[in-house]
Amino acid sequence: MATPNTSSPESSAPYVPHNPAPLSSAQEQQVRELYHKRVRTKCADEIREFATCAQTQTYLSTLRCRPQNRAMNACMLTHATQAEQDAAREEWFLSRDKRKAEREAKEERRRESERKHREWWGLDEQGRRRWDQQEEEERRYGREGRGGKEEGRR
Fold first, then answer.
1. Alpha carbons 10 and 14: distance in angstroms, whole number
2. How far is CA 4 from the centre of its chain?
3. Residue 102: is its pLDDT beyond 60?
């Protein structure tokens, strides 16, 4: 009898779907930002050369820095490929768990801060000042309570 394979793909590495469901607009924007960041890091030297040239020039920077500009654009075009875009999408999927953990930690810090604020100021869950019922009545009506002294009434 053959033994079943006990190694699961979840334990080795996070699963990155090859044909994932479409991402939302905000998620696609995050992938694009990651993609542009990856391309810019690969062309950092050319970008730096063009920036230093353009900073020393005035309105003639387009003419005098043309070789650096062309080198920068050529580098960007060679690295801005579909393969690089796919690599950025894969990196985004791999960092999904990390972003989720960061969001949960941020939410927990917010809740803890809110709880401390309510505790410090004596607020209830709705943000209203809380009092004991007796303290509330004493505050409103004095020590006698709601009806005043019973023996004085007739």
1. 6
2. 41
3. yes
